[in-house]
Batch of 4 targets.
Target 1
Amino acid sequence: MIPYGAHDISELDIEGVVDVLKSGLLTQGDKVPAFEQALQNYTNASYAVAVNSGTSALHIACLALGVENGDIVWTTPNTFVASANCARYCGADVDFVDIDPATRQICIESLKHKLLVAKEFNKLPKVLVVVHFAGHMCNMKAIAELVNQFGVKLIEDAAHALGASYLGQYKGGCPAYSDITVLSFHPVKSITTAEGGAALTNNKALAHLLRLFASHGITKDSQNFVSNSVAAAHYEQQVLGFNYRLSDVHAALGIMQLKRLDKFVEKRAALAARYDEELKDLPITLPQFDPFSAWHLYVIELNHHDRDACFEALRAKGLGVNIHYIPVHWHPYYQQLGFTKGQFPHSERYYLNAITLPLFPALTADNQQYVINALREVLRD
Ligand SMILES: *Cc1c(COP(=O)(O)O)cnc(C)c1O
């Protein structure tokens, strides 16, 4: 089976991990700060807080922005459930903004309209979570200018976008326009730490809060202690935080992987260009051309074939095709909260025709040709 995504581990990556296991601390050592520094250097964000998953990073991002019971958080239906769940962890209500079918990302016109209506009914969200779907950057400048007028804070779910460039200045989200940018290092993403994630920000106070929430709400910096009575102690718990720390074993893998990230993205872009060329005559909609994408996913939309039948036929030919994404509001958990099918028609129509083709740095030319041939055969039948 050719999977839709896969990690790429080198001998040097393995050596980096083994070095930590042989010497040094397994957690709370110097590898996590070194990984955070490397992430800052690469992405051009002022602060990076590494954590044990992208989902944890989304959770602490919401907490740092003060999301709580009674608040509202918006995202798009065309994403992984974690983009919405983070708000639910904080007791907030979730709502969605439909996608633009051309970009498959949040539709800025719909966003504008929904903000105006929400303002009138005093139902503005505290935070909007935008998703750089498939590794293509959203128009962050336009989105930030719009939501700033309404006092809405901005989280970028950049789980797909590490390595995508924006304004020629940023290479994993755009912390200049968002409050917090979230990354994931799950094995199918741009780089991996097995499980892992990070929150990036250019705001010092937010960086402090992110760190606090990721480690029990505890600070060890006596200059930040709020209580006199424990001034002699080593640490002080100030808020209710979690243990979301990344280990040094995982960070060591991240440090080695990050060195190869530009090569990974180049490889993904070359594979995407080959799909563009080889599939352009088929009755399918290809992803939009984007020279700055991190190319996390290559999603085609069938124009007049039965998606489920094609999906099964491709699976039967040994392709690990996938579907990104079941609209979040279609999941039973969200249906039970009151969402119904038909509410976000662009996300739903897109989903019903979408198939994700294999795309990862180690995909060989032969295997890609096999994918292309298999797709041609299935669409011909
Ligand atoms: C992978 C992913 C996440 C969650 O990341 P984990 O590291 O798996 O917790 C969040 N949002 C999106 C869009 C993702 O693809």
Target 2
Amino acid sequence: MTTQSASRKSGRFGALAGIAAATTAIGSAELVAVVTGSRSAPLVAVDGVVVDHVPGPVKQFAIDVFGVHDKLALLVGTAVLLAAFAAGFGALAVRRLPVGLAGIALFAVVGVAAALTRAGAGPAAAAPSLVGGLLGAAVLWLLVAGPLEPPAPTVDRTDHTVAGQGDDAVDRAAAARDGDEWREQRRRFLGGVAGAVGVGTLAGLGGRWLSARRGVAQARAAVRLPAPASPAPPVPVGADLSLPRLAPYTTPNAGFYRIDTALVVPQVDPDTWRLRIHGRVRRPITLSYADLLARPLVERDVTLACVSNEVGGDLIGNARWLGVRIADLLDEAQPLDGADQVVGRSSDGWTCGTPTAVLRDGRDALLAVGMNGEPLPIEHGFPVRMVVPGLYGYVSACKWVVELELTSFADFDAYWVPRGWSARGPIKTQSRIDTPRGRGGLTAGPVTVAGVAWAQHRGIRAVEVRVDGGPWQPATLAPTVSIDTWVQWSWRWPATPGEHTLQVRATDATGDTQPEHRTDVAPDGATGHHTVRVTIT
Ligand SMILES: Nc1nc2c(c(=O)[nH]1)N[C@H]1C(S)=C(S)[C@@H](COP(=O)(O)O)O[C@H]1N2
Ligand SMILES: [Mo]
């Protein structure tokens, strides 16, 4: 065994020790974070900082590639990166333990700094990274303390001019003893690695599980929502064409798109929840969840849309919301002159900025507590969120909302504005072809082309379809509840064999027709006609 290969071998053992130490650190930190809040766990805290600081295009890329799993992808990616670093530091630690310990200390410091700078973090947020760092260091130290190389041969044979029988036997016995000892040490080392990885993983998974159990699912299940003082108008017969592949008029909660910056879903206890309406108001107000439920509740169907929705995309959904009219609360708080922006602030520090005038112009802007007949799902903002017809979510739909702060657009930029998105976000008129899509199973003859169109709070006046760039043909609009929801449309197409291009465009109730010109989703929403290619046989 040469020195070089021995050190390569010990380097590999060191890498294993590093990974074992990192697993212990991350896992034990998750367990501590059960007490201090899951957002203080180092992986979540550090990735939270990453999410807040990645450039807009990267965020869009992540949404495009990973969709609603973008956050899971980030966490897994970080874990893999961390494992690589840990392996490197472990390999160094075999030579010089302080270097390895310094590596762990570095990660602990980064974790502490990230956790302490998250919105609403107290000093206890430092605990998970500190405990994790200490335990990780201990594991690394214990693992690399023992010899990590097989012993050098006891006798160097090449020096023997005469190799006697007896000497040989002694050598072999010594070598065998050394080998046994080494095998035993190696067994203990690998056992230690497996133990640390196993215990660390269990602690991590257990921590996540306990955090979820400590969450607000039970509190949510206990909520009894009062009946609305102003029920939603019934959905007219025929609003839902009930065609296969066509998005249903009402999006079920389980299928409702989810977009937010939260790596772990905020768990906001309705019993301790308070909403502060403050800033530039004459009369600041604080409301509890019970206060909110005691007020007259309004129920409305409103279609929510994400500014990041590509033409033809599905970051849009329609639900029946139950809540309190924000306008009434603002009337009581009495905004001061010049307070032209209402900043909704979430329990995790995220903000959106909504024009005060929009909230007070008579539309059904709600502080919502219910969604499709249930308390808000936790990932959709339980216990309370904002819903404002006609504005993209990023400027209006604050989930887990705890503050409405009256300020001005000149004085405050909400979360997405410094990240390159427009301060104002009225929803652009859009339309989508849901069926047919793709190439299979279509034969010549009448084919129903159908989809949805939306121009929230303006309403849709007309939808048109064209085939292969030909003349625009009027589609039939299904009835709808109000101008605040999408509308389904359909068109009978006398399809002929071959490849065809279908396009759709909508005209809103003010008479504006969707422009053909394609623009990116940034900074204020995509434009262009949804186009699908189909094959008819
Ligand atoms: N607290 C919080 N609220 C938020 C966001 C967020 O990142 N954090 N994202 C907004 C965006 S961009 C959209 S499109 C809507 C999406 O609401 P949904 O997840 O219930 O569909 O929530 C909005 N509310
Ligand atoms: Mo969004």
Target 3
Amino acid sequence: MEFLMIAAAGLMQSFCDNLSPNAAPGFLSSLCKNENIATDLGAHLSSAANVWLPGSTTFNTATTRWSSLDAPGISVVVEVATENDVAETVKYANANNLPFLAYNGGHGAIETLGAIENGIEIWLGKLTSVSIAEDGQTATFGGGIRSKQVTDALWAAGKQTVTGACECTSLLGPGLGGGHGFLQGQYGLIADQFESLNMVLANGTQVTVNKDSELWWAVKGAGHNFGIVTSVTSKIYDVQNDGLWSYKSFYYTYDKVEELYNAINRYLGTGKKQAMNLMNYSFFFNYPAIDPNHPVIAFFILQQGVGAVEEKYAEPFEKIGPIMSTGGKGTYKDLPTWTSNADDSLPCQKLGLVNARFPVDLQSYNPSAQRLAFDAFTNFTQKFPAFNNSLVLFEGYSTQGVQNIQADSTAFSHREGNLLVTPLIIYPPTDRKRDLQGSRFGEHLRQVLYHGSGQDEMHSYVNYAFGSEGPEAWYGYEPWRLERLRSLKAKYDPKGRFNFYAPFDRRKVHSPHYPSRKKVYISN
Ligand SMILES: Cc1cc2nc3c(=O)[nH]c(=O)nc-3n(C[C@H](O)[C@H](O)[C@H](O)COP(=O)(O)OP(=O)(O)OC[C@H]3O[C@@H](n4cnc5c(N)ncnc54)[C@H](O)[C@@H]3O)c2cc1C
Ligand SMILES: *[C@@H]1O[C@H](CO)[C@@H](O)[C@H](O)[C@H]1NC(C)=O
Ligand SMILES: *[C@@H]1O[C@H](CO)[C@@H](O)[C@H](O)[C@H]1NC(C)=O
Ligand SMILES: *[C@@H]1O[C@H](CO)[C@@H](O)[C@H](O)[C@H]1NC(C)=O
Ligand SMILES: *[C@@H]1O[C@H](CO)[C@@H](O)[C@H](O)[C@H]1NC(C)=O
């Protein structure tokens, strides 16, 4: 039974009004503070909005996150139903000096979120409207829409647009930080599709941000720091070739690491040399049914517009001698299922586990660094089984659409990165010791791959970031970038209300589970 609906709040209110603040035990006074939110704020919200307090099933559902490490402290959930509800909630939070956070798919996992205590969650799950413009060039989506809802609604009209690969993440959670997806080779990032955004600013004012706005540059890559997007108008495209895609997957044993990554470099090409309709990705993972003593490597090739992955791409990988391989054809809508990113796939589930990522962009594979990382991954996950569901992910999206856009035209700065690489350290949470052990392991794997690349800047995709990397790694090292972001921040959010998701101010970077410098092992 739900503990609270606004309608029931009146009764509780009179109880709270009669409670002497000094005599009340702590838990009762905090309960009453939340009750006040329900009644005071409730009066300003639309009729379909709800306020949920701890103890209700809906509160639990609404606050459950994909990763349990450093989850934000939420004491009340406001389930908004209109764009104006968002503005009212922000104004209320400010007037009462309470921190607040937009909640969408709940897959954000950066440690900086942990700085929120007693916060108001602004749950966007009801803002899922879709309307396709008459000319078929754009569509307007509610700020809480998920990838799958975008794809399904457009598909019904023969249209598509860039979303994240995962059905369960929102459009805007990824999009405000850039947003990678299967169609980026053709059209660019999610943020590159934006035509205009309705946003609630830090002071609760509602504005429309478009190419003529000062914030336009900033919202395309650093948008989480400037407001809550209540709706977005984005470019959409005709589905071509009936949306035909095909895939091949290969599983390799531990002895094939060098051969595989040499072949990817050689036959699939990176960056602009990689065909626009071709993508590949791979991951290291433990699969005891194939090999109980070592992890194995899964490798996927995805190709658009063909009924089967072309032989010239598949054959070199057959020759390496996979232990298993499969393939198939379908449509764009099958990609999440093939790649384990569908609503019912494991990565979409919220299981109370820690999911910590340590991203680094690479230009191409260094097979000996891949070997070192593989062996380190083997040693650690064999020795510490609590971590044996971890993965190391290597995503090779096609990049033309991303790289064709001027890098200085958006706050998303890492357009030249060809490969999106990240260890994903997964474990059941127990204590701080295990958290430190996990983050040390993830950082070690990242350092091995980074040092193997010979690159001299660590670029870490903000939406995968662990939280310890810092603003240059997220937003770019050219000094003008952070200067520009900080000066916009000083104007639009001087009180730092949106400082919980990869903030620009280094002092706000809160990373309790990051090992101290001394302990980080750097490979040589
Ligand atoms: C299984 C999985 C697959 C993924 N696949 C991809 C992928 O293919 N491409 C990719 O780019 N990333 C991908 N990611 C990373 C993804 O971009 C981030 O996890 C992102 O934070 C998820 O957004 P969310 O809405 O689900 O999470 P939330 O935790 O709800 O949102 C994250 C943060 O975004 C902000 N936010 C969300 N909505 C709004 C809004 N409307 N207005 C303003 N701020 C908002 C808030 O600060 C919030 O804390 C993936 C992540 C997972 C877990
Ligand atoms: C595999 O990924 C990398 C990144 O693009 C790329 O270098 C290689 O060409 C890709 N192969 C695939 C999957 O297309
Ligand atoms: C893994 O463990 C083996 C055996 O203990 C050791 O020889 C090897 O150096 C380790 N490799 C890495 C990369 O840690
Ligand atoms: C992880 O370790 C446990 C305990 O040793 C084992 O039962 C399980 O099969 C392992 N899982 C994987 C994916 O390796
Ligand atoms: C809110 O902030 C914006 C941007 O700084 C400003 O233009 C606007 O006047 C402010 N609104 C109020 C009511 O203070």
Target 4
Amino acid sequence: MIYKPYSLHNFRQIPQMSFLTDEQKLEIEVVGTVLPFKTDNYVVDELIDWSNFEKDPFFHLTFPQREMLHEKDFSRIASLLKTNASKELVKEEVNRIRLKLNPNPAGQENNVPVFNGKRLNGIQHKYRETMLFFPTQGQTCHAYCTFCFRWPQFALNEFKFAMKEADQMVEYLKANPHISDVLFTGGDPAVMKTRFFESYFNALLDADIPHLKNIRIGTKSLAYWPYRYTTDPDADDLLRLFEKVKKRGINVALMAHLNHPGELKTKAVQEAVQRLLNAGVQIRSQSPVMRNINDRADIWAENWKEQVRQGIVPYYMFVARDTGAQDYFAVSLNRAWQIFRGAYNQVSGICRTVKGPSMSCSPGKVQIVGVSEIKGQKVFVLNFLQGRDPSWVGKPFFAKFDPKAVWFDDLEPALGESGFFFEEAYLEMLA
Ligand SMILES: *Cc1c(COP(=O)(O)O)cnc(C)c1O
Ligand code: SF4
């Protein structure tokens, strides 16, 4: 299958656009001017059900929707486009709106290490065991998710994290014996040609680092372009490369971003999964819970069951980040917990490898364990699944129950405490 991307410039050529009114197409154009927009022929032809596109999760997942902007911002851009305003003026307005959308959530710049006096801009190291690596060639995606917290990378250059040099990654890794995992991320590293994977992986193998146990690849490619592992010209080479890494005693894990069971139904994705498993690759799944996409327990239960049937290990349920079109997707923490529990309750033990719902915030990954009552006060029970300080992990703590809270920042300590147990140490770390 030949890859064909669509974006703001050519989406009107998509044959299925005939299902939309002129007004709906204009809405895509207006919102797509502010938020990054890109989709591809696989998503359009195989995932979206055009007979019911207004309700279709994959349409909401990749096509900009009017309600993703505040009404005022939407009208402002719409009127600029309708009156053929100058490019400069549009750009100025677009930037103003983008900067309001929290383009850099969870203080990601705090995760960039300084090594031998230099900031390593393509690396983030926040949790002791796992280093994130942002290869320069992998900072785009086959299609863009409308909820993505990486959106500034596609739209705002000054926030870009990326690195070309494998050497620096290897040196940093050698100097940090606690790191067992290197997680390739982006964007989507799977957009890289195999020869780039080869140069990075070979550098890691040649360095022969005994504490390196897992190479992980965070990717949406299974759902947006499964042909990366089947018919792309360098698909076979990529699988052989994974096999080689495995043979050298390093585990290869594909951290697959899978939002909805519909993504697992096509012949192409099932073949891709089988080929990866045959090459010895582990596949683990993760996804945020989002309104309009997957905000029902049954969807998650079906997703986990189908994943496990195909050999994929359910890994994380996330709470949607506080960035971009968050208002459009936000599910309250209380609701996220109910969805998690409702789904977890109806699957067998082998699906219960999943953790969540989890918020990736600046101090760490905070799980909503549940809602309970202590000394007459209704509380959220929380727990760090990952922490900037590993000693925070696994100690339950409490926040006042708030049915409207959608993110960690909305929460307050419960039971008369003046702060959460980790707060002082956390502020000290940032200082
Ligand atoms: C989620 C995340 C990781 C990986 O965490 P695991 O729990 O090991 O999957 C690593 N670094 C950062 C910054 C993360 O947000
Ligand atoms: S594939 Fe991943 S990085 Fe790319 S837009 Fe979607 S969520 Fe963001």
